[in-house]
Design goal:
Layout lengths: L4 H8 L2 H8 L3 E5 H14 L7 E5 L6 H9 L3 E4 L2 H9 L7 E4 L5 H8 L5 E4 L14 E7 L20 E2 L3 H10 L4 E5 L9 H22 L5 E3 L17 H19 L4 E4 L3 H4 L3 E12 L3 E5 L8 H5 L5 E3 L8 E7 L8 E9 L6 E4 L20 E5 L5 E5 L4 H5 L13
Parallel strand pairs: 1-17, 2-3, 2-10, 3-4, 4-5, 5-6, 6-7, 6-8, 8-9, 9-10, 12-14
Antiparallel strand pairs: 1-11, 11-12, 11-16, 13-16, 14-15, 17-18
The structure holds pyridoxal-5'-phosphate (PLP).
Length: about 425
């Protein structure tokens, strides 16, 4: 339940007017909270020059949010051509964009290459020969295999499809050098929603040791290591926030030590998505129905097209009922949308204040991998996105999908192949 007290207070004073003005359902993001987290992150890693966060665009691919990140000096981690185009659309370019793809097509490399300067992060040694133009600066994603354990969402490194194997990593750089690469970075991403900072600390140490090996073997220096995203947020009330300060201190110390030993050290990059925006967004939805059969159901006007995580991962999202924060009458219910899929539930057997039709439900921590993951199954349309700005105003930053959008891909030129 890390929706901060600050956000809850800010939202609670405007939510009724916002519901009247914009209509539900909507995701609303807290600019103040996002800026505070960005500044906190920068402070925690300020022990060394050159720290940089590349916001993982897939977590919240909205230009208005990306502009906030840009103002904080952050770059963008993109994993598809349209994500690269989105970053470019707000004026990001060159080495502010890191292209971390996997199973990459040549077309995708071409988009990433188009301004000649985005950082390519290659997912396999076989891709070295497939990059149309080998850039000067190249990065590889390292997969340590059995040397590390992963966690639930990404899985064990040995089973994960990502990255260059331990056996191939030196050769990958060797081949890139043959094709003209002159500057280097090394990347990894092993965990998702990890709350234990020590896991991330181990990852930094692992990358530094790999960088040292490859650097000695090939007589090259590395400009950066990128420890990936995957920083967790406490979705459940009993969970604690990740200790970013401790991670900052430990990584600074590791880099200092690396520098004392080698006479140089790489910069530290990361590409957090969830940590940056997750707690700073909520899904606001209205109670429209109640149903009492074998279980009690609270029907709301949002469905899983707005938020896939509960249905996909059985993820917990805390819920509060606006205005009933200290209500004393409770019941145990499933909170459901309208899809013809029984996994279309925002909460299962959750004890909540008794609701009435018209009550406003606030589903927490939807600021990352929320709206972005939504889909159109069952012709459910994705909701709008709003931004609660630092001056207290609320701006529409994406309209809701319409039936016209749903029909848009049915509007095409006749195309028949006489293939027999
Ligand atoms: C998804 C992803 C991220 C962001 O993950 P979070 O859990 O949101 O921090 C970063 N890098 C890569 C390569 C990813 O695939």
């Amino acid at each position: 339940m890390p929706m901060s007290g600050g956000f809850q207070t800010r939202l609670s004073s405007v939510v009724e007017k916002a519901v009247k003005h914009f209509g539900t359902p909507f995701h609303i993001y807290d600019e103040t909270g996002i800026i505070e987290t960005a500044q906190y992150l920068k402070r925690a890693f300020s022990g060394r020059e050159g720290f940089k966060e590349f916001f993982a665009v897939k977590a919240l691919p909205n230009p208005s949010i990306m502009k906030i990140m840009q103002e904080q000096g952050f770059g963008f981690d993109c994993s598809s051509s349209p994500e690269v185009m989105l970053a470019r659309s707000i004026g990001s370019s060159g080495e502010d964009i890191m292209f971390t793809s996997n199973n990459t097509s040549t077309e995708q490399f071409e988009t990433a290459d188009a301004d000649g300067g985005s950082i390519l992060n290659l997912d396999d040694i076989s891709l070295v020969s497939k990059v149309p133009i080998m850039p000067e600066l190249i990065c590889f994603r390292y997969n340590p295999g059995p040397r590390r354990r992963g966690n639930k969402i990404i899985g064990n490194p040995v089973e994960a499809k990502y990255g260059v194997s331990h056996e191939n990593i030196s050769d990958a750089y060797r081949e890139a050098i043959k094709r003209g690469a002159k500057r280097f970075g090394m990347h990894t991403m092993l965990a998702s929603n990890e709350l234990n900072y020590e896991y991330m600390s181990e990852t930094t140490l692992m990358l530094l040791s790999m960088v040292e090996n490859v650097s000695n073997a090939l007589n090259i220096k590395f400009e950066f290591i990128n420890i990936g995203g995957g920083f967790g947020i406490p979705y459940r009330p009993e969970q604690k926030v990740m200790n970013i300060e401790a991670l900052g201190n430990e990584t600074t110390e590791m880099l200092n030590q690396f520098e004392r030993k080698n006479g140089w050290a790489p910069k530290l990059f990361m590409e957090s998505g969830r940590y940056m925006t997750g707690p700073h967004g909520v899904l606001v939805t209205t109670v429209i129905n109640h149903k009492d059969i074998y279980r009690k159901y609270v029907g709301v006007d949002a469905s899983m097209s707005s938020l896939m995580r509960p249905g996909m991962y059985e993820a917990y999202h805390h819920i509060h009922i606006h205005g009933k924060e200290s209500y004393s009458e409770y019941e145990t219910v499933d909170v459901v949308g309208s899809l013809c899929e029984n996994i279309d539930k925002f909460a299962v057997q959750r004890t909540l204040p008794v609701t009435a039709v018209g009550d406003i439900l606030v589903i927490h921590d939807t600021g990352a991998h929320g709206h972005a993951m939504g889909f159109n199954y069952n012709a459910n349309l994705r909701p709008k996105e709003l931004l609660l700005k630092t001056d207290g105003s609320i701006e529409l930053i994406r309209r809701a999908e319409t039936v016209t959008d749903y029909f848009a891909t049915l509007n095409f030129d006749k195309d028949i192949c006489l293939c027999s």
